[in-house]
Amino acid sequence: MNFSIIVPFYNEQKNVEILHKEIIRSLTKIKNKHKFELIYVDDGSDDGTLKELLKIKKKYFPLRIILHKKNESQSRAIQSGINESNYENLIFLDGDLQNDPSDINSLINYYIKKKLDMVIGWRRKRKDNILRIIPSVVANKIVNILTKSKIHDNGCALKILKKKLLTDINLWGDFHRLIAVRLIELGANIGEIEIIH
Q1: Which of 14, 34, 64, 138 measures 20 to 30 Å from 85, CA to CA?
Q2: Distance of alpha carbon 132 from its chain centroid, rounded?
Q3: Full-model pTM
Q4: pLDDT tens profile 112-121
C-alpha cells in the first residue's frame, strides 16, 4: 500500500528534527511492505521552523515542504498537504511531538487487517493537564450525543484514512478534528486504536 504522511507545523523549530528522525525510524521498519511520501507544511511559522525543515535530508523517502506565507489554521495546512499528496492513503500527525510516530505501524496494521476506511488514535492515557482533559472529554461526549459517532477522542490528530473519502470535503477552521464524525455520517467504516500520548 502507498501512504502520504502529512504533518502541519506552526512554530515548532525545536521539534522538527526530533519528529522527522522518529518518523524515519518508524517507517524504516516497514518500508519493504509499503511506499511512503512525507509532506511537511509550515503554516506561516515566525520562528525558525522553515529553516529546520529545509535542513532535512531527503534520502529516505520522497519529501515535500509546503510553505504558507501566513498562519492559516491546522485544517488549512492539512488540506494543503492533501492537495499535494500522490498516494491513495493519508496519515496525519501533529508536528508538536504530541503523537508518537512509532504508533504509525500499529495504525497501518489495524487499518489493513480490519479493512477500514479510517483509523483514528485514542489518547486513552493523556499526559495533558486536567484543564485540557476535562473540556476534551465533555466535547467528545457532546459530539457523540449529537451524532452517530462513538469515537472516544475526536481531537486526536493521529489518523489514517482513504484519500477518496475527502474528495468532496473541504477542511476549514478546526474541522480536521471532526473528520471522523463527518465520515461516519457518510457511512464510512471507522475504527480507533489506543496510542501513546
Answers
A1: 14
A2: 20
A3: 0.85
A4: 999 999 999 8
